[in-house]
Amino acid sequence: MRAQYREEPCRTALNRVNGMPFNWSLNPYMGCVHRCTFCYVRAFEQRADRPSDRRYGTSIRVKVNVAEVLRRELARPSWKRETVALGAATDPYQPAEGHYRLTRACIQALAGARTPFGIVTRSPLIVRDVDVLAAASRRAEVDVSFSIPTLDADVWRRTEPGTAPPRQRLRALRTLVDAGIRAGVGMAPILPGLSDRPEQLAEVLRAARDAGATHLWCNVVHLRPGTREYFFEHLARDWPEQLARYEALFARNAYLDRRVAEPIRARVAELRAQVGIADRRRIKLEPPPPPEQLPLAI
Fold first, then answer.
1. Residues with Cβ < 8 Å from 156, sequence gap 6 or more?
2. C-alpha pair distances (Å), 193 with each of 13, 37, 198
């Protein structure tokens, strides 16, 4: 199914977020053509009475003025330079970015305001912005995470049908780290029974280390209504032997029982220590300009 793109201006760029490690999010696009079967955004789409099934990702909103709006918001005297998460509800480097370059413009705006930000992406398209990311890294804290839950080719193809192969993401990670950018791997979501075998986890960690990852974190799948139904539909088709187990795991809660989730997280933590993932860059932030040289808020 081909995506349709709707160019629509936005009134606000920054979104206040509750219950997350960051307080602000920024989404240049809404909707995502990656159409991952486990995508948690499907749950929010259902709650908003929008399609969460196979139609999700076929209509993409392009916030054509988002960078202009963002610059105005960052210039307000009330802005405290809190960390901004790019793409919390959609991948900021999905294919549309190749044409519109809205994420690039937003990075430049954030760097100009010395505002720290983080990016999570499944796309190697990010290497096109290595110049602005490197420049931003010298002015504020920048954190890039490539979502690579598995290197298992079969699991990747069936669960992330619209994404680039994981090893392409690792090559992109190497490019960013070599340019001095803090870039690591987010193993998320790990799928019990599909991508949580010790050898599967170890393969990702070793590949992340070899690519120069500065950090690594993980999370296990959670399935809220909207996401759960779609994921189960694909599970029944691709791994029917796992369906009954998942129905039992998520019968009462959207999140895995700790007795299932914690051993996976503990294994990743153990492997992370064994393989030796660490930030080996030598980057210093530029000192801030004296007050008389700071731009006036408008």
1. 150, 163, 165, 166
2. 39, 16, 11
Domain ranges of the chain: 1-113
> Count H helices, E strands: the chain?
11, 10
H or E element in which residue 172 lies = helix 166-178
Q: Which amino acid is at 177?
A: V
| CA separation for the pair 204, 277 (Å, rounded) | 12
Tokens of 46: 């259902």
Radius of gyration for the alpha carbons in the chain, expressed in angstroms and rounded: 20
CA pair distance 5, 64, nearest whole angstrom: 11
Q: Residue type for 99, please?
A: H
Kind plus residue range of the DSSP H or E element containing 218: strand 216-220
**Confidence class for position 30, pLDDT limits 50, 70, 90:** very high
DSSP code, position 6 = E
Which residues have a Cβ under 8 Å from the Cβ of 146 and sit 6 or more positions away?
Answer: 120, 121, 122, 169, 170, 172, 173, 183, 184, 185, 186
Closest CA to 145 of 184, 177, 179: 184
Burial tier of 279 (Cβ tally within 10 Å: 0-12, 13-18, 19+): middle
Cα angle 157, 39, 56; round to 5:
90
Instruction: Give yes or no for a cis peptide into 189 (omega within 30° of 0).
Output: yes
The predicted-structure confidence for 155-198, as pLDDT tens digits, reads as follows 999 999 999 999 999 999 999 999 999 999 999 999 999 999 99
Write b or e for each residue in 139-178: b if 16 or more Cβ atoms lie within 10 A of its Cβ, otherwise e: bbebbbbbbbbbbbeebbebbbebbbebebbbebbbbbbe
Other Cβ atoms less than 10 A from the Cβ of 192: the count is: 18
Q: What are the distances in angstroms from CA 291 to CA 97, 134, 144, 258, 295?
A: 35, 24, 30, 50, 9
- Joined tokens for residue 65: 């003025």
pLDDT in tens, 95-104: 999 999 999 9
